[in-house]
Amino acid sequence: MGIGIKALIGWLPDDSGRDAMALAAALASTGNVTAQACTVLPQSWPFPSMAKVDAEYQRWLSERGVAAVRQADEQLRIHAIPVGDPAAFYVSNTAESAGLNEAAKQYGSDIIVLGSAPGPVGRFAPGSTTDSLLHSSAVPLALAPNGTRSTAAPISRISCAYVGTAQSKDALRTSVALASALAIPLRLLAFAPRASSTYPPFGGYGAEDVVSAQWKEQAHQVIADAESSLRLDRPELSVTSEVGVGNGWEAAVGSIPFTDSDLLVVGSSRLGPIARVFLGSSASKIIRHAPVPMLVVPRGSSMRAAAATTVEES
């Protein structure tokens, strides 16, 4: 297998953690993926006293960490996920997102796998940890919608949200690398949502229809060009494309047929002088409404470097 992927699972013994574990299992059953499960515990008071309560709190934290590791080990075995060394561990930090970032850096993780906060089944709802990581992670984030533990299947197709921007080209590089390494089809997606208006827009509904039609035509042209380029550069890949159209983002995303075995790859913008995940408005809306697991790719990530030789710069 061309690309070996090291996944760090953000683990807690709850439904969110089990969803993340199920997504890691789906990835591992598809290709060359190893995983480690990491639980982040609150950092104890940095200047402990001799008081009995401090010792009890420290003991409680340690017991909680040991229990989380034991449960993670059990889940890794149940899902038959190839593991790294150590397979599961816990760390202490002032914030869960910071702890996962540091663990990913320490163990050279290629992706961080996260479960959803409570919300509608089949959709991903960012909690505080995910929201923080979506603005700070230096590696791609694999997001498991609520209920993935009951629906996860081996990934059989990579779907890439593509609009021709720099960040979507980064997502495309990773998508091509994954599809090639896993020997599965690649589908290019573009979305052309029509903005809904309570009152007639200044130019009338006719003007709005013209703008929507032009957006749809442009979306078709962008992914058609990308598909043609890929067919020439990577003839071994199975490449298709679709445009999602609807009245608003939910309808546009919902117009695309997905299966439980799809992985949707979304690009991110760049925040600050170094590569970090930072979602634009379009990516945020796609994540909110997509009914399948997603991979959010920051510019300059390690997976982008692995994919850099798969797509020529345009």
Computed Rg: 21 Å
Q: Roughly how many Å apart are the termini?
A: 27 Å
Quaternary state of this entry equals single chain
Mean pLDDT figure: 82
Class computed from helices, strands and strand pairing: alpha/beta
Biggest sheet: strand arrangement? 3-2-1-4-5-10-9-6-7-8
Shape: elongated
pLDDT < 50 stretches: 270-278
What fraction of residues sit in β-strands? 15-25%
Largest beta-sheet characterization = 10 strands, mixed
Topology:
Elements: E1 5-10, H1 15-28, E2 33-42, H2 52-78, E3 83-93, H3 96-107, E4 111-115, H4 128-133, E5 141-144, H5 148-151, E6 157-161, H6 166-182, E7 186-193, H7 204-233, E8 239-246, H8 249-254, E9 262-267, H9 281-289, E10 294-297, H10 302-307
Parallel strand pairs: 1-2, 1-4, 2-3, 4-5, 6-7, 6-9, 7-8, 9-10
Antiparallel strand pairs: 5-10
List the main descriptive attributes of the protein structure presented here.
314 residues; alpha/beta; 10-stranded mixed β-sheet; 10 helices; 42% helix; elongated
What does this structure look like?
The structure is a single chain. It is built from ten helices and ten strands. By secondary structure, it is of the alpha/beta class. Helix 4 links the parallel strand 4 and strand 5. 43% of the residues are buried. About 3% of the residues have low confidence.
